[in-house]
Known about the structure:
Layout: E1 3-6, E2 13-16, E3 25-28, E4 31-34, E5 42-45, E6 55-56, E7 64-69, E8 72-74, E9 77-78, E10 83-86, H1 94-99, E11 106-110, H2 117-121, E12 126-128, H3 139-155, E13 160-164, H4 170-183, H5 190-201, H6 211-226, E14 237-245, E15 251-254, E16 260-263, E17 269-273, E18 297-300, E19 302-309, E20 312-320, E21 327-331, E22 336-337, E23 350-357, H7 358-367, H8 369-377, H9 390-408
Helix pairs in contact: 3-4, 4-5, 4-6, 7-8
Amino acid sequence: xxxxxxxxxxxxxxxxxxxxxxxxxxxxxxxxxxxxxxxxxxxxxxxxxxxxxxxxxxxxxxxxxxxxxxxxxxxxxxxxxxxxxxxxxxxxxxxxxxxxxxxxxxxxxxxxxxxxxxxxxxxxxxxxxxxxxxxxxxxxxxxxxxxxxxxxxxxxxxxxxxxxxxxxxxxxxxxxxxxxxxxxxxxxxxxxxxxxxxxxxxxxxxxxxxxxxxxxxxxxxxxxxxxxxxxxxxxxxxxxxxxxxxxxxxxxxxxxxxxxxxxxxxxxxxxxxxxxxxxxxxxxxxxxxxxxxxxxxxxxxxxxxxxxxxxxxxxxxxxxxxxxxxxxxxxxxxxxxxxxxxxxxxxxxxxxxxxxxxxxxxxxxxxxxxxxxxxxxxxxxxxxxxxxxxxxxxxxxxxxxxxxxxxxx
Length: 409
């Protein structure tokens, strides 16, 4: 059965040199590759994209490049000769039949919450790393997966790994795949890995790989460089005291009635505190009670920090609490803004998060329980906001004054 890659003029190629005990000649498409056998070395050869790719559009995902086997368009993307990703339900699917051709040389890493029985039925070696829906794997889980996958790939030139996750968690698949590419030193930076993954997996090369995932990948890369042979320790637990939105321009939110809700933030204001509701006077144009309050939120490891507006996620960002200080300011670049799945405009904005270190809190509770209890409820002052350029803010203020004058008339 003839096979060719649709969407890319040829499969992306990563040449890996193997020890002399492994055959140094492999079949690549219709060519033979003569590989040096002195050491493990990865050489990246980027693919070229053809003008009219064959694509299949999923209801909950962007249009993706498809691998064609005979007359079938499969939800399989080759990140290299030996690294495949897929998010289609594989039980009883054509994708699963295609993977049978690798037999025992194929090892599946399943990151979906559920076990896929089809892997065992076909006798495909598989590892299950269950993740919570919408939550990324911890640094230690990513490290264990990368070590297992790299050990398997180095065992033989014919070995391949398949990274699988259910369709609704497609974005997490990119995080997992890029972690492996960084661990194997195929890429030298998180942004480079994210850009190449978006180009290979999706038709639109500008597919918005979440900025917060790039942030987390960068932290994962630092851990690999500092201690590549040691699993990272679990990040310390920290308590989230407050989320502050610094002053910004006009926003538009897509609501359930298919209309747009516009609001203007004139001053900086707390969207979340551990002790009291937001100050309605500091945020104008919408009701401050839109935001859900979750007292004494504990942030452990890499989590999705959310500000909820009537059940809708307003912004999110992945944080590693190992890298968080008491004050963590996230710029516009590091935030993923969304509402009802719709992106909306933002400008001149930053989010400030205030944390408590639970280790110091526990020590204070042992020495002075009264002081520790008071500290849990006492609001902390927020540091000086990062304002937009004066000229822009003056323009915003002048426009607001003009509108107020028109209303009074």
